[in-house]
Give the backbone structure.
Amino acid sequence: MQLQPLICVHDVEASSRWYQRLLGCQSDHGGREYERLVRDGRLILQLHRWDVMHQHGPLGDPDLKPYGNGVLLWFELELDDFEAAVARSVELNAECLKPRHRTENAHYECWLQDPEGYTIVLASPLGSAA
């Protein structure tokens, strides 16, 4: 089984560029309504425009905020990738919710907010900060 998270956004193309820069991933679809982002050939995130229904109908209510309340998008990266992603988050002027820190699980985390208001956690592998 593989998790395939999908979030609704107002601007798919802008969100795609932001995530590609932050996570070092690539577009696997492209477009104004829907995007698939991949890294090393694996799907890591889908982006869907709020007001596009396709065959499934509405996916959420864009007026209810904060988006993803209680849901964190957690990306575990190799230690070198983690440090690089944290540096890119600064370049992107990402809102930092919790700066880079060592956790009780002996790894590093950095909590951010994406441009749409979703909470993003960058994490190094468990035990990598032992």
Observations:
- Residues 1-52 form a domain with the Signal recognition particle alu RNA binding heterodimer, srp9/1 fold (CATH 3.30.720.120).
- Strands lie at 6-9, 26-27, 34-39, 42-49, 72-76, 95-102, 108-113, 119-123.
- The chain has two helices and eight strands.
- Residues 79-91 form the longest helix (13 residues).
